[in-house]
Batch of 2 targets.
Target 1
Amino acid sequence: MAKVFKKFFKRLLKKHTGFVIFVLLVVIGVFTLFGYATRKSVLVTVSPGATVADVANALKKNDLIDSVSSFKLAVRGMGGRIQVGQYDIPRGASAWRIAKMLVNGDVATVKILIPEGLTLKQIKILLADTDGLTGDVDCPAGMMTAVCDITDGDIFPDTYRVARGTPRIAVLDLARRKMNQVRANFENRKMPRPLQSWHDVVTLASIVQRETPRASEMPIVASVYLNRLRQNMRLQADPTVVYVLTDGLGDMQGEALLTGHLKIDSPYNTYRYAGLPPGPIANVGRDAIRAVLKPADTNYLFFVADGNGGHKFSNTYEEHLKNHADWREIKNLKK
C-alpha cells in the first residue's frame, strides 16, 4: 500500500508540481497559525528580594524553561541581575530570550485609553474596571500628594501604557502630570475676551468638549459661548445641567434632559446663573483647548443639533427657533 501511494505521489508531483507545493504551503501555514493561536503566555512576577535561583525555579515549575542552570547561565552572561516586575512569558521562548526579558525589565504592560470629555468620576470608574492595575482609585487616608486634590479639568485624556501592577492612583497622577505639560504649552497664549485665566480656558473648553465631538466644529461652538459672555447672556449649556443632575458623573445614563431640569439651583447651572460655571465639567483634549484660545470669528449666539452629529448655528433667536423646529421634526422622524 505504501509503495502504491509513493508511486501515485511521484506521478502527481511530476504533473502538478506547482499545485502540490501550493497545497503543502497552505497546510503548513494553517498549522503555523493554529500554533500561534493556541500558544499561551504565563504571567510571572519577580518580587523585590527574589534571587535568580528563585526565579529560575519558578520558571521551571511553570514549564517555561527546561534547565535551571541554563537560565542562570544566560542571566549571568547578561550581567547577572534581573529586574522586579510582572512579565508575560510566552510558552516556547528560549531560556536566553526569557533571561533577556528579565534582565532588560521588559515587563508586561497595560494599555489605558482615557477618552476626551469624561469626568473625573467616569475616569475613576474606567480605571477601577481596568484589569492589570492595582489599588484603589482614591487616595488612602493620610496621603498628601497633588493627585489627592485633583478635580475635573486636571486630567489629560490620552492613551497611557504602564507596567502591569501599576497602582491606579499612579495612573491618575501620570495623567495629571501630562495635563500640566499641556498647560505649560498653552498657558502663555493670548486669551480671548473675557477669559482671564487658565482656569477660565479649561472651564469653557470642557463645555465645548461636551457639546460636540467634532474638532472642526469646536472653534465655532467656542465662538458662540464667547459671544454670549461678551453680551452678558447666560451660556445656557445643557452639559452644565447634566453635570449638576448627575452629581458630577456627567452621564444621564439614558434619561432625557427635561425642561424642568433646567431650573435646578446650582452655580453650575448656566441656565440660571450668568458667566462661566465655578469650574470645568469634564476633562479636555487639545482640540477643545485650541478652540477656546483661537475661536472662529462669528456673530453666532445660538446652535442646535442638525440630526447628523453636528449643529446648526444662528445669529438671531428667530432663526434659532426655526432650526430648533427642524431638529424636533428630525427627532420625530427617527422615532
Target 2
Amino acid sequence: MNIFPAFQTILYTVSTAMLYPVVILLIFLCLWIILYAGGFVGEAVKRRHFRSDRHLAEFLDDMKQAKQLPPEVAENLPLGIVAYANELRDIIHDKSPFRDEKVEDLNQRKEHALAREVDKIRLIVRIGPSLGLMGTLIPMGTGLAGLTQGNMAQLSSSLILAFTTTVVGLALGITAHFFSVVKERWVTEDMRHVNLITEAMTRGVDSQGAAG
C-alpha cells in the first residue's frame, strides 16, 4: 500500500492553511513598522537636538549636588533615561542598608530593557523576509496545482500574491535592519548616559543616607 500520496495531501493541506496566517502577519508587521517609524523619527529629532546642546558630562557637578537631573537636561533626554534618573533619585534618598544593591539592580534592569528594545526590531529583520518567502512558496504550490487543471486564472492570482509577499517581506527586512543599526547606536549612547548619571548621582553618598 502506497501511503506517500496521503502524506503529500496532508502536507499540502497544512501548507495551504498557513497562507492566511502568513498574509495576516505580514499586514500586521507592516502596520507595526509604520507606527514604529513614527516614534523612531520623533526620537531621532529629540536626540539630534540634545547633541547640538551641551553634553551630559558638563552637568555632572549639578547632578552630584542635586542628586537629580537638571531640568534643561531632563527635557532633552529620552523618557526612559529620565524615568531611570527619577527612580535612582528615590533609591538614593532611601536609607535602606541595601541601597547599593538596589542601585546595581536598577542599572542591570535598565541595561536589560535597552537590550530588549534592540532585540524586538532585530526579530523583524529575520521574520519579515521569512514570512515573505513562505508567502511566495505557498501560492506557487496552489498555482501549479491549478495549472495542471488548466486554470490559468488561479495561476495568475497565485503568482501575483507570491511576488507581492516577497516584496513586502524584503521591504520589512530592509527597513527593520536600518532601524536596528541606528537603535544599537542609541542603546550604546543611552547606556553611557545611564552610567554617567549613576556615577554622578551616587558620588558622595555614604552607606547610611543621602549626602545632606
